[in-house]
Structures are given as structure tokens and as C-alpha cells.
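Continuing the series of single-chain predictions for the mutant panel. This is the parent chain; the variants come on the following pages.
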Amino acid sequence: FTFHENLLVKRVGVNTKTTNTTLTTADSIVLVNNPADVDITLPLALGSVGRYYTIKKTNANSYTVSIKLSGTDVLDGDTSAYVLTTPWQYAIVASDGSGWYIVGGH
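Parent structure:
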């Protein structure tokens, strides 16, 4: 954390992924430059209360980025992967400890 003129500013991890990966606390903004279809797996919601991730497909190819779940977690009540298919598409997901929710995106 950094203090700036009485404001608390949280620095977030901006990471680029090119292969299948499971996100960690070191990730926050995830830029996916995928040369093939890539799976980005969210950690268990139970240990991620209040955590959010922004996951963005950062190229114009036809490959997909699948946002997958761990264990029996759900994303907006569904166990299926959420798939980014178009160039520059992104999703912001957040956990309440019992599941993941899409709270923004394009």
C-alpha cells in the first residue's frame, strides 16, 4: 500500500499470461495474449472473499480465453466456463466467498 496525500492507494498486480494458468493473489489485472486457446482458472471462492480479477483478451486472433472455476464453485450461479471470444473483450469477476460473480466487462 502507498499513502499519497491522505489517500490509501492499493497497487495491483498486472500480469500477462500466454498459457493455461490458475490465478493467485499476485494477480489482479490479467492480460491474456493467447497464441492458442487458453484456460484461466479462478482460485476457490471460499478463500477469496472480496477478491476481484479483470481478465482481458489482448489480441485480435480467433482463439478463446476460457475463465474456469475451481472445485464446485459457480460463476453467476453457473458451473460452466465464461468464454472471451472477441478481440479486446474482458470480464471483471468478484468473489463473495461462496461463488464468483461477473461485475463488469465488455
